[in-house]
Amino acid sequence: MGFNMSKFLLNYTDTYTDFYNKVISDFILYNCGVEYCNPGWSYGPKRREYHFIHFVKEGKGTLTIEGHTFHIHKNQCFIVPACEVSLYAADKKDPCKYSWIGFLGIESSRYVQQLISNNNFVIDIKDAVLYEQQIRKIISLKHDSLSSALKMTGITYEIFGSLIDEVNDTEEVKTTNSLATRAKRYMDLNYYDAIKIKDIANFLNVNVNCLSSAFKEEFNLSPKQYLMKLKIRKAKKLLSTTNNTITVVANSVGFNDSLAFSKVFKQYTQSSPSSYRKQATETHLSN
């Protein structure tokens, strides 16, 4: 993780609403800011409990997420969904100047899904300065009252409305936003809950058979198979990179019962979670 001081940093984190009430709200700001990075500055790899979006107004950098590295430049934004491990770094010669918002809530995953298509976490935007201006408005407000909290939420909605308008203007997003892709993105964003395929079908307003058929045709496996493989992949990541208990790992990938999780994990990996963690640790130490 990089710790170089930024050339300029202006930020705000909401302390008016406690984290639990943020989570159960429909949509609420968590934090925001403006940052002008030093050359080569980096942040991560790190996993956060909230979604965030950075709007790059000048400079260049990279975002690494889900095993892919994206090159980012002026008038682009990059989106990192909650609970995804990401690393972003400023260019060594032309570092980023960006603003950002972090947010969460019941509806937040749906809004993120509207923006991300085909695992493309980077979006072209018309003018990142306009988003920075809105974020500066939030920071300039008093932060100790219900009225200011509502104003901040209103500005955050306005930012999202503008961004979704920009995304919907691109033909590419419209043509790639298939039923199967939307189902896949829903699972990517909600794997940590105990979701079932019928929940995904209900969210997309289709029946389960229709969803399963479309998904299998596009990805050559059933939605259930994809969801379970996704959960196992995320669990393996947690087991190899954290000291979380097996119960916490199980809960983090949508299993309320750690014994059921261990049974499924062994079916897919031929190894118990504890054995997998031990082997991963030994491999890491030997490298």
Structure, described:
- There is one protein chain.
- The chain is an alpha+beta fold and 287 residues long.
- Helices cover 49% and strands 21% of the residues.
- The chain has helices at residues 19-24, 108-115, 128-140, 146-168, 171-176, 179-190, 197-204, 208-219, 223-241, 246-252, 258-269, 273-286; strands at 8-13, 28-36, 42-47, 51-58, 61-65, 68-72, 76-80, 85-90, 97-104, 122-124.
- It has a 6-stranded antiparallel β-sheet with strand order 1-2-9-4-7-10, with helices on one face. It has a 4-stranded antiparallel β-sheet with strand order 3-8-5-6, with no helix packed on it.
- Strand 5 and strand 6 form a beta hairpin.
- Helix 6 crosses helix 8 (208-219).
- The longest helix is centred in the middle third of the chain and has 23 residues, at 146-168.
- The protein starts with 7 loop residues before the first strand and ends with a helix.
Low-confidence stretches: 1-5, 171-176
Shape field: globular
Structural class: alpha+beta
> Taking strands numbered 1, 2, ... along the chain, how are they ordered across the largest sheet?
1-2-9-4-7-10
- Annotation field: number of helices: 12
Order of helices and strands: EHEEEEEEEEHEHHHHHHHHHH
Q: What helical percentage do the residues reach?
A: 40-55%
* Major sheet details: 6 strands, antiparallel
At a glance:
The chain has 287 residues and is of the alpha+beta class.
